[in-house]
Amino acid sequence: MIRSEVLKILIPVISDKLVVCNIGLPSQELHMLDDQPSNFYMLGTMGLSSSIGLGLALAQKEKVIAIDGDGSVLTNFGTLPTIANNVADNFILLIIDNGSYGSTGDQPTYAGKRTSLTKVAEACGCENVVECQAEEAVEVMQAALDSNQMTIIVCKCESGNIPVSVIKMDPVVIADRFMTEVQKRN
Amino acid sequence: MSINDKIVSDFEQNNVEFITTVPCKQLAGVIDKIDKSERIFHIPSNKEDEGMGLCAGAYMGGKRSAIIMQNTAIGVTINTLATLIQYYHFPLPMLISYRGELGEPVACQVEMAIHTKALLAQMNIPTYHFHEADDVKEFDAILKHTFMCNKPTAILTDASFWSGVSATSEGVVK
Ligand SMILES: [Mg+2]
Q: Which of A88, A144, B43, B165 lies 20 to 30 angstroms, CA to CA, from B95?
């Protein structure tokens, strides 16, 4: 399974949650599969999905899922100690780890080589770090949601992309629509 | 009221409830008071662009946020300012230790100081320079301005502004 297939099978469990989605293809795929006011699409700034998600989770009560990638977490490694030391039990970080920089043409990342993001997250002090295969993503996500505990999921999948169009929504519209939804739920 | 107390009190009065910090010697006193404030959630970040991500998330969650950092961070955060904070119209007061100005003991700090205002100007970021202790009186208005116009704003605080403050943590506003 590739990332877009992982996102597709996850839609039934994450569709009604607040989702912060990583820049590039992940946001474009989520937008194509299931555009919702509860989705915040990153149009720029690689690496900050987990930081935006944590800030959002700490600031309000609703559950937040940040969808990140292995390459993006490598870009913003400092995020993992911050997450570990500022526990928000309404926060789930889903790292879709396809071992490559998907949006830029599948160049390999170190996470696909010798570096284990699961072990890094644990070494940073994160509790509830779950590594799973793509096929287990739904079950693991549902368990994380049910646990009411902050969880880091490292979901291993194959690299590869599907054709998908860019998001044409204005960033201010994305943010305003999302913030209205957040406010409605709190 | 000391400068540090005035800054923290202005944050509180303007309902800034979420502040991320990357430390600087000049800012140690104010960071300490923010950490102790019961009305402000203080979350140290490891890098300033990460901190801006936290602030963006908190703002979307309904909490006014701010970042405290050194001017060297302007070099780190240009992309984040352009493609996150400015692109999505998030307000973000940036209280900045302006290292490399008169009184600076570390030569290397001057290297980013000479670019700081030019970079902020290039980014069209409203910029305020606190040089005298009394300049802090504008801080309240700057915060209100930031949340009125939904832009990042930079408050550069130099060594002269902080002179006497870091030694005692109690510089006094006349
Ligand atoms: Mg990847």
A: A88
CA dist., res. B151 & res. B41, Å (int): 21
Provide the number of structural domains found in chain A.
1
Query: Any idea how long chain A is?
Result: 186
**pTM score of the predicted model:** 0.97
The ipTM estimated for the assembled molecules is: 0.98
Task: Render pLDDT for A98-144 as a digit per residue (tens, 0 to 9).
Answer: 999 998 999 999 999 999 999 999 999 999 999 999 999 999 999 99
Summarize pLDDT for B61-76 with one digit per residue, the tens.
999 999 999 999 999 9
Q: Is A174 at the interface with chain B, CB within 8 A?
A: yes
Query: CA-to-CA distance for A23 and A3, rounded, in angstroms?
Result: 13
- Option in B41, B46, B51 nearest A58 (CB): B41
Would you kindly state where each structural domain of chain B is located, as residue ranges? 23-113+124-132+152-158
Total number of residues shown for chain B: 174
Q: Which domain holds residue A137?
A: 3-185
B57/A53 touch (CB, cutoff 8 Å), yes or no: yes
CATH number at residue A30: 3.40.50.970
CB contact under 8 A, A78 and B82: no
The arrangement of strands across the sheet holding B64-70 comes to B41-44, B16-21, B64-70, B92-97, B152-157, B127-130
What residue type is assigned to position B172 of the chain? V
Looking at the complex, does the CB of residue B15 fall below 8 Å from at least one CB of chain A? Answer: no
